[in-house]
Design goal:
With 140 residues, the chain is mostly helical. The protein has helices spanning 2-47, 53-69, 81-86, 93-138. It has one domain.
Length: 140
Amino acid sequence: MKEESLKIIYNEVVELHKYQQQALDLMYNKLNWILVSDLVFLAVLYSVHRSNIFIVLLVSLSAVITLAGFSPEKFKFTAKISKQLIKADDDNFLESLIKKKKDAFMRNESRSKSVEKLLKCSQWLLIFAILFQFLTLIFR
């Protein structure tokens, strides 16, 4: 009975880990799009003779924050397959594997939250820059 329960828990943890990775991939994809938007917006602003320095500052900050979100920190996985194969005969194999998955999940959760904060900050800076540019064009 315990073995069956552990298998169920393990399958759920594996699925949660997979969805967590997909969510992080989606956030990185959004950061990519914001960075591209920032760079295009900056190119347009620099091509204008008298661009608003405040708008250039907002877009530049958005680009810098977005770039900060792309850190070399890797997504945490569990033990390598070779290590798992060595311990496969242990009595507490599934328990240790579940523990490793849980630890990886918790470390990745904090990374996801920090990337999400950077994404929101960068997103709002770009939104404000677009709005201010629009207002500048209207009241010129």
